[in-house]
Amino acid sequence: MSTIAAFYGGKSILITGATGFLGKVLMEKLFRTSPDLKVIYILVRPKAGQTLQQRVFQILDSKLFEKVKEVCPNVHEKIRAIYADLNQNDFAISKEDMQELLSCTNIIFHCAATVRFDDTLRHAVQLNVTATRQLLLMASQMPKLEAFIHISTAYSNCNLKHIDEVIYPCPVEPKKIIDSLEWLDDAIIDEITPKLIRDWPNIYTYTKALGEMVVQQESRNLNIAIIRPSIVGATWQEPFPGWVDNINGPNGIIIATGKGFLRAIKATPMAVADVIPVDTVVNLMLAVGWYTAVHRPKSTLVYHITSGNMNPCNWHKMGVQVLATFEKIPFERPFRRPNANFTSNSFTSQYWNAVSHRAPAIIYDCYLRLTGRKPRYSTLTCAS
């Protein structure tokens, strides 16, 4: 057993966002390499018709956890699910559960976030900023806490030309934004959003930058580290290659291409497709958790985890590899033969959208109508 794996033995670990992609892979790695850890607390939103235990079994009932069940047969007993809602300022955690978290937690991995680019500012600030501040307040009351690991994004400061591993200030203080959103109505918020986010490309990256500022301002005497991954993709090696459970980022594009819905993509072909495997991110998270707890750095350290310039893969190269894979292992019942063309020209992109996407979908939907079936391809191609 490695030094890092041994460190997590006997620990009580709190993971936010444990039901998400990154959170699941983090849990799997912890249980597989440190089966003698004490407990993993996961915050779970109430879901109609399902008990907490059923939610736990639903998470474990995945191919991802097959090896874990061999190494740690009682894994379900080491997951302590707690009802919580990060959309509420106090997380709506019961008094008893809160007391247990405050008195027992040793390590916090804060993975929970909204990653939608088109989310509303109110919702994104609540999950990416206010919830982070609330969790830091909880952490400051945990006498046994050894490390707080905050997961941000490599694009939190993408409005800058050069990004160092430091926390950059935002034009408006996070507290002012949080306070303002409490009394502003949605119409006014929508109107001022472009002025607030300025040169950030979307609400997601802007609120993640605000979240980093909150970590810096509310850190108190906590041992904190920030990790900035780029685009998190499928597993590379652990527990096996190619596991993914969502259509975020490039995953949705790959599926749409494989099914034949997406053939023209507006992108710069030679631009870096900065996709990093999720198991690589998790390995860094565990290493940073160990280092932060054991070495107790005097300031908050920031870690980038990206492909960078060392081993870049551009979008054209990725497209070629994806298409080659579909030649060997095609999807069942595709709409048409997979193909993909990249263009950075807006006019060319609109032309190919009309010719390669909308026109074939409309024609096929007409055929479906004539044969008494429900049309559906126009909607799918527009979504792609």
UniProtKB/TrEMBL annotation:
Q: What is its EC number?
A: 1.2.1.84
Chief localisation class: membrane
Looking at the UniProt record for this protein, which Gene Ontology cellular component terms does it annotate, in alphabetical order? peroxisomal membrane
Q: Which EC class, in a word? A: oxidoreductase
Cellular location of this protein? Peroxisome membrane
One GO MF term, please? alcohol-forming very long-chain fatty acyl-CoA reductase activity
Q: Which UniProt keywords apply?
A: Lipid biosynthesis, Lipid metabolism, Membrane, NADP, Oxidoreductase, Peroxisome, Transmembrane, Transmembrane helix
- The residues that cross the membrane are none
Q: Write one Pfam family the protein is assigned to.
A: NAD_binding_4
Q: Can the keyword Lipid biosynthesis be found in this entry's annotation? A: yes
Biological process terms from the Gene Ontology for this record are: wax biosynthetic process
Sequence ranges assigned to domain Thioester reductase (TE) in this UniProt record: 15-285
Topology in membrane = Single-pass membrane protein
Catalytic reactions on record = 20-methylheneicosanoyl-CoA + 2 NADPH + 2 H(+) = 20-methylheneicosan-1-ol + 2 NADP(+) + CoA; an ultra-long-chain fatty acyl-CoA + 2 NADPH + 2 H(+) = an ultra long-chain primary fatty alcohol + 2 NADP(+) + CoA; hexacosanoyl-CoA + 2 NADPH + 2 H(+) = hexacosan-1-ol + 2 NADP(+) + CoA; tetracosanoyl-CoA + 2 NADPH + 2 H(+) = tetracosan-1-ol + 2 NADP(+) + CoA
Q: Which InterPro entries does its entry note?
A: FAR, FAR_NAD-bd, NAD(P)-bd_dom_sf
Describe the family membership recorded for this protein in Swiss-Prot or TrEMBL. Answer: Belongs to the fatty acyl-CoA reductase family.
Q: What does this protein do?
A: Catalyzes the reduction of fatty acyl-CoA to fatty alcohols.
What is the protein named?
Fatty acyl-CoA reductase
**What organism is listed for this UniProt entry?**
Homo sapiens
Tell me what gene encodes this: FAR2
